[in-house]
Each structure stands twice: as structure tokens, then as C-alpha cells.
Design goal:
257 residues, alpha+beta, Isoleucyl-tRNA Synthetase, domain 2, 7-stranded mixed sheet, 3-stranded antiparallel sheet, 4 helices
Length: 257
Amino acid sequence: MYEKGLIYRATRLVNWSCALRTAISDLEVEYLDITGPTKLAVPGHDPNRKYEFGTLTHFTYKVKGTDEFIEVATTRLETMLGDVAVAVHPLDPRYTHLHGKELEHPFIPDRKMKIITDDILVDMAYGTGAVKITPAHDPNDYQCGKRNNLEQINILDENGKINHNGGEFAGKARFDARVDIYKALEKLGQIKGKTPNPMRLGICSKSNDIIEPFLKPQWYVDCKDMAKRSVDAVRNKELKIIPEMHEKTWFNWLENI
């Protein structure tokens, strides 16, 4: 299969279970819908402590060489340790004067950060119209990073602790780091508050851990030709799906593979 080009290796974002220290498939991820601020216990953390989910934390980055700040918001504050850019819409008049400007990371002074434009990711009518970009820890940011040739900085060890890229927060469990980063930003006057945010949390079905998007090299099987043969077999009635209503599911899976 390798010699035929059907098996290949690629570094992509996977569903990572820190508790199991392995990638898991989409089918092994369960989802928890949260309507607003919710406290949850998390495997690998202090069992007597609960952590807040279902909120957007608003904070600022300083524009280098100026007195200006740009406000962003995130549901996963700890990922700011892996931020490499802030994206704005190219047509947003609020930020035209900032295109290409450098930003100061409050905890990692030598981090190269800049303001980029991206009309695919950014909706200028949503929030502040400025989006923090963490290519190594978010699927949308990963794609944005690819489009804009941004560095991918992984901030987590396989067990879910902040690694050497996290500056002063290195070695902390990821959700303890979330709490400590909030306090540190608050001290700097760069926290702009929290707002409730309904969200869907991916949960590892085997360990109950919260799934992390994690950049890892993995082996993949190219199923495009196999999928096309399977789709064609149903369309030409060589293969019959019973009951027929499930044909829609068949095509939905295989045509989007």
C-alpha cells in the first residue's frame, strides 16, 4: 500500500487525549454542549479543583512601538502562549493603519508576532473583528497559518502540560496555566473581561479528558479512489443500500472523504 502511494505520513492536527497520550479518531470523540459558564473537573489535574468553560476571555496585545492595543477574545486562554499573529479583515477600516505591524507578547518577549489580514477567517462584524492565531492548536488557525505562512508553535507536552515554549508557565497543567495566565494579564491591565459563550467541548470517550487539537505526525490512508468506487457502485445500482434513505448518509461520508 505504501509503494502504491495509498499510505502516507503527514503532520496535521489530531484529536489528542492527554490522559491516554494518544491520538483518537473522530468517532471516539463525544461532545458536551455547554450553554454558558460551567465548572468541570479535568483528568490529569487536581481532582479537588474545577475549571471554568463556556466563557470568552477578552484581552489585549500591545502594538509594538506605539501606545495602541488590539483586543482579541478566546475560549482557551492558555493557547495565547502559542499565538503568532492577530488577523483582521482587510476591508475593516478600524485596523487599516495596523496592517503588518508587530505585536508584543506579554510573556514571551522574543516571540515574533504581527497583524495580518485574512478575509476567510475573520468576520469583521463578530466581536472586535480581531482574531488571535494559534496555528498549532486550532483547526481554523491552522488553515489561516497555512495561507499566511505562519510559524506553528506547539505549547503542550503529550501529557497536557505547558512545554518550553510557554515561558514562565512551562510545566503547569494546561488548565492551571489558563487560570495563572488570566491573573498575570489582569496584573498587566490587559484583561478586558469575560462574556458567556455557548460552546461544544470534545471529550475523549475512553478517559473523559477534554480533547486538545494537537500537531502530530501520523500515518494516513488515501481512500479517495476506494470511496469513488463505492459511490459509483451505489449510483449504478451494483450495490443496493437498504433502506434506500441511508444512501444520503453513504454519499455524505464518501463524497467528503
